[in-house]
Specification:
Mean pLDDT of chain B: 87
CATH topology of chain A: MetI-like fold
Subcellular location (chain A): Cell membrane
Largest interface: A-B, 40 and 37 residues
Low-confidence stretches of chain A: none
Low-confidence stretches of chain B: none
Transmembrane segments (chain A): 20-44, 190-208
CATH topology of chain B: MetI-like fold
CATH class of chain B: Mainly Alpha
Largest sheet of chain B: none
Distance between the termini of chain A: 54 Å
Oligomer: heterodimer
Strand content of chain B: under 5%
Number of domains of chain A: 1
Helix content of chain A: over 70%
Shape of chain B: flat
Organism (chain A): Nonomuraea longispora
CATH architecture of chain B: Orthogonal Bundle
Largest sheet of chain A: none
Pfam families (chain A): BPD_transp_1
InterPro entries (chain A): AA_ABC_transptr_permease_3TM, ArtM/GltK/GlnP/TcyL/YhdX-like, Ectoine_EhuD, MetI-like, MetI-like_sf
Strand content of chain A: under 5%
CATH architecture of chain A: Orthogonal Bundle
Shape of chain A: elongated
Chain lengths: 217, 244
């Protein structure tokens, strides 16, 4: 069997509107959650109280060492038993966000560590309150350092988002699987889905590399 | 001392019910991870060396491969190999083989970047010294550049191997009977889902941790072999130091 162009054109609009929308929602939702949660986790891990920093660190290590797919199963199948009922997409966004928070927290940590010691000392010398030091001295510099790496994780989240199709989210890949199983032809929808990811991920990572160079100087 | 076989069916309650199946799945997970890792490492070394080649075309080929496989997600590659390629070529791969191939190709692309970066991180003076000593390009790579680059590669490779282990769970989607698949099967057949999922996560974590331990050992060895890091301490000296 060879490539069927007519059918390709028939399924293309559906994949690129409906599917794209869900993929973008999942990516952006997951990324925003990962960025916010990651920052909090990074701050908690720096806490001087060991009963806060240790358990948070251990939990994040655990999340990072286990597959997103299984974590999604837990969120999707177990949470409803405890009375948390969410749509599949919301569950997926939370899964992506929490999983990648484990990664972004490391990025923030490196960013915070990279702020020169003199900045802290200057803030102390100027008698600045500690929260103020964090918010207007340390974090702006740390986040700036972290930006390229965070950008890479947006691309990574985008590429991992097809896993949500396993918990019935109908993103580009979920849709492609659906179309494929209905017609017993996976070639066209899967190839479209693959090209779609290439066409977005490659320019996106080029953009991130550019950002890296600009922020480097 | 009594040892308990964690895979036996005689364990009490849910554990005895589920662990034999989870262990079967875990074995498949380990096999596909090992296969994927072997393929990924070979690809990473070959393509990584190609990417640092002085020849532009060779570099270009490596670049295209890396961008292509890093630009799409593993799941899409897996689906494509398993569902789409048979239509195009008429050759249906075994599902475990398709899975190992997808994992190896994908993680191999990431690994190539690691290898390329590590080769670049070797100080240029090392290369110059090797040239001055009349080493052939092959000897230069084999005896001077690679051993030093190898030390640099280990920590990022550790991360990649853990990513690979995690990615093996995706094989369950094309019905390979790995840990994630067996776990879902157990849940569908009515086992306590909280316990089954918790066991699955713990097993994955133990595997990841084992990878980290092995890689740390390899890193220490490699660092010692190029004269970096702490030399191996003899027992006697350690005892002397302890006495001080």
């Amino acid at each position: 069997m060879i490539w069927d162009w007519n059918w390709t054109l028939e399924i293309l609009p559906q994949l690129l509107t409906q599917g794209l929308l869900v993929t973008v929602q999942a990516t952006l939702g997951g990324a925003v959650l990962a960025f916010v949660l990651g920052l909090f986790v990074a701050l908690l891990r720096r806490s001087r109280r060991a009963y806060i920093s240790r358990p948070v660190g251990a939990i994040m290590e655990f999340i990072r060492s286990t597959p997103l797919l299984v974590q999604l199963f837990v969120l999707y199948y177990v949470l409803p038993d405890f009375g948390f009922k969410m749509t599949a997409l919301t569950t997926g966004i939370i899964g992506l966000g929490v999983h990648y928070a484990a990664y972004t927290s490391e990025v923030y940590r490196a960013g915070i560590d990279g702020v020169p010691k003199g900045q802290w000392e200057a803030a102390i010398a100027l008698n600045m309150p500690r929260p103020y030091t964090w918010i207007s001295i340390v974090l702006p510099q740390a986040v700036r350092r972290a930006l390229p790496a965070l950008g890479n994780y947006v691309v990574a989240i985008f590429k991992e988002s097809p896993q949500l199709s396993v918990i019935t989210v109908v993103d580009v890949v979920g849709l492609a699987r659906g179309v494929g199983s209905e017609s017993f032809r996976y070639l066209e929808p899967m190839t479209i889905a693959g090209l779609f990811f290439l066409l977005i991920a490659i320019p996106a990572s080029m953009l991130v590399r550019r950002m890296e160079r600009r922020l480097d100087t | 001392m009594m040892t308990v076989n964690p895979c036996s069916g005689d364990l009490p309650g849910v554990f005895g019910e589920t662990m034999p199946f989870l262990c079967q799945g875990a074995a498949v997970t380990l096999q596909s991870a090992a296969g994927g890792a072997a393929l990924a490492i070979v690809i990473a070394l070959v393509v990584g060396l190609m990417a640092s080649s002085p020849l532009r075309t060779v570099r270009g080929v490596a670049r295209v491969y890396m961008e292509f496989f890093r630009g799409t997600s593993v799941l899409v590659q897996l689906f494509w190999l398993f569902y789409a390629m048979p239509i195009l070529t008429g050759y249906q791969m075994d599902k475990v083989f398709a899975g190992v191939l997808a994992l190896g190709l994908n993680l191999g692309a990431y690994g190539s970047e690691v290898v390329r970066g590590a080769l670049q991180a070797v100080p240029p003076s090392q290369r110059e010294a090797a040239i001055a000593l009349n080493f052939s390009p092959l000897q230069r790579m084999r005896y001077v550049i690679l051993p030093q680059a190898f030390v640099e590669m280990i920590p990022p490779m550790n991360n990649l191997l853990i990513e690979l282990l995690k990615a093996t769970s995706l094989l369950s989607v094309i019905t390979v009977a790995d840990l994630a698949y067996e776990g879902r099967l157990l849940v569908n057949s009515g086992s306590d889902q909280l316990i089954v999922f918790a066991l699955m996560l713990v097993i994955y974590f133990v595997f990841s941790y084992a990878i980290t331990l092995v890689m740390r050992f390899v890193e220490r060895r490699a660092a010692r072999m190029v004269g970096r890091g702490k030399p191996r301490r003899r027992r006697a000296t350690a005892a002397v130091e302890a006495a001080r």
